[in-house]
Design a protein that fits this description.
It is built from 1 helix and 8 strands, in the order H-E-E-E-E-E-E-E-E. With 207 residues, the protein is mainly beta. The longest helix is centred in the N-terminal third of the chain and has 12 residues. 39% of the residues are buried.
Length: 207
């Protein structure tokens, strides 16, 4: 998925990320649950957490850049992109301050059935942190980002990484016990099977 909302300036160094309001995020989650729906999110600058029992991805590429939230400073991220991904036991959570009420946690879960994983095409994840067990197939580390041969097409110009910067790519990857902190996620299509959306008072995050 190539996001059309991937604002950001180019960034040379390698660092390792979607949050509108609670209501807006809930609407997005319910809409995505209806089936394959194009998904693209602007960067708000607020981090959210994502966990998964297993992520299988084909056509993987990872590179660094910066993103610029509205009225905010540039933030370095690592972008992990997949041509196709299957995700089991997906959990996404964000804590949002709500006037009068206080902090509220929005949690979205999907893909709990091993035979019905979440599916995504052209998936981009902008991360500040990732913890997982990883197995790569046919991996190339230290690729010139301009000579990428695997994964979705990397956006060029001010929305993409700096020319000639570091990248790594692989034919496929399996990540297990995934815990990541992210600023943005976007996909060409994102199918959330068996969606469960809940709102909790206080902090009740995925991890």
């Amino acid at each position: 998925m190539e996001s059309q909302a991937r604002g950001g300036t180019r960034w040379r160094r390698f660092g390792l990320v979607m949050v509108p309001s609670v209501a807006a995020t809930a609407v997005i989650g319910v809409a995505l649950a209806q089936g394959a729906l194009a998904a693209s999110f602007s960067v708000s600058g607020q981090e959210f957490k994502v966990s998964a029992g297993r992520l299988y991805g084909e056509g993987f590429v990872q590179y660094s850049q910066s993103v610029q939230p509205p009225n905010g400073r540039d933030r370095p991220v690592a972008v992990s992109a997949f041509e196709y991904a299957e995700i089991n036991n997906l959990c996404q959570s964000v804590v949002v301050p709500v006037p009068v009420v206080g902090d509220v946690t929005l949690r979205i879960g999907a893909g709990g059935d091993p035979n019905r994983p979440v599916e995504a095409d052209n998936l981009f994840i902008d991360m500040s942190q990732l913890d997982a067990q990883a197995v790569f197939t046919n991996i190339d580390i230290g690729v010139n980002v301009d000579q990428q041969s695997r994964g979705p097409r990397i956006p060029g110009g001010p929305r993409g990484p700096e020319a000639g910067s570091f990248a790594q790519q692989a034919e496929s990857v399996v990540l297990t016990d995934v815990e990541q902190t992210a600023l943005a996620t976007s996909a060409g299509t994102f199918t959330l099977t068996d969606l469960n959306l809940s709102v909790h008072r206080g902090a009740n995050e995925c991890f």
